[in-house]
Each structure stands twice: as structure tokens, then as C-alpha cells.
Hints:
This protein is an alpha/beta fold and 246 residues long.
Amino acid sequence: MRKRVTWKDAWRREEKVRHFLKVADLVIPRRREQIEFIVQLIPHEPSAPIRVLDLGSGQGTLAEAVLEAFPNSRVVCLDGSALMMKIGMERLEKYQNRVSFVLEELDNLSWLKSINGKFDAVVSSLAIHHLSDRRKKAIFREIWGITKDKGALIIADPVKTDSRFLGQRYERVLIETIRRQAKEIAGIERAYEEVEAKHRKAQRTSPDKPATLRAQLRWLKQAGFVDVDCFWKYACFAIFGGFKRK
Length: 246
């Protein structure tokens, strides 16, 4: 049996990072739509001088979208992969003093000590599902503590379902979406069976720990966030979060 690697090990491997960068737009459903919607949910005027924290910032895709939509914003990019951060720094170099970088892992409380002050918004794409459920609950409370009044936490992440029937339907939707995106974006024709086989192989060895959407909405409320909701959902991918008001 193939050994299941941890997500920390995976993102330290250059081949894993390069492969993700190559296929991300093909295998993540409606990725550009997700990024744009996260930015639209930030509850501040475009001209506001907001401070935003991007957790699991990776190659800087979401951070760049925030910096473009809010020209007076400053963004702190936090990620646990030195390789990803290097790529992100190169991508965001043109923003100079508007962006800063922190190399830290979210499963360690030390991440809070590595940043200063509070934020008008905290955003995250494809990162929280790497954490255990216990850690997810804790980090929602930690994020509430560093979010300013009238701020928000917006997360885009895969979520799991307890329904076998829905799980099967979501898998079919995801496979068809990957096939369509591969054709539309890269001009690649892929058979359903080929994509299905690769997807299931990846699932068997994945270190990911997605939680149900219902559970995470409950944990956000318990952490203190209000107006908690699922803002967007496509099969097993969701954008959800909440706001902070005194």
C-alpha cells in the first residue's frame, strides 16, 4: 500500500508545487469565479485603506486579487511552504510595500505570534481543509481575535458530505467539470474514465481532512462570528464565513 504523506511533506516537494501550479485552473471548479467572489464579499469600500490577512496564500492568486480590487489595501501573506512563498513573492513583487510575507504553519499556535495587529478581513483559499477538525475549531477562535470590528472571515475550501448518495453525485459533477475545464482552458480532451481513475487515486492517498460545511458553520458561530453562512457552493467546494460586530 502506498504511504499516505502529510500535507506538510507534500508542499515541501518541488514537483508537487509545480504540478499544482500547472493544473490548478483545470482541477479546481470555477477557480476564477471563486477568487472574484471572495473579494466581493469583503465588507469594505474599494477605496478603503484596509489590512487583509491571506491564510495559506500559496502562489499569491487571492492576494493579488485583493490588492487589485482594493488599491489602498495592504496584504499579509502567510503560508507554510517556502517554495510556494517564493513563487508568491515573485508574483507580487510589483506591489512592493503593500504586501508582506510570513512563513508559518497554521497547525501551530506560533502563527499568531508571527503577525502583528488586527485585520479588516481574513481570507483563505484551499488551506483550512489541511487541518484537523480540532485545529479548525481553534483557528476560527484565533482568527476572531485578530479580526477588527466590522471585519470578516471568508474561506474557500473543499467540504465533505456525510451522504453517500451526494458524495457520488458530487464526484461525478467534479469529474465532468475537470474534463470541461481541461478542454476550455488547455484544449485537452480527456476521457471520463481517465479523470475518474486519477481522481480516485489522489483521494486514496490524500492527506486532506475536509469537514462538513454544517460543522464548520457551527464552529464559526461558536467562535463569535455573526451572519455566518455558505455564500457559494459547487458540489464539494464551498465559500463560507462570517462577520464580526460588537
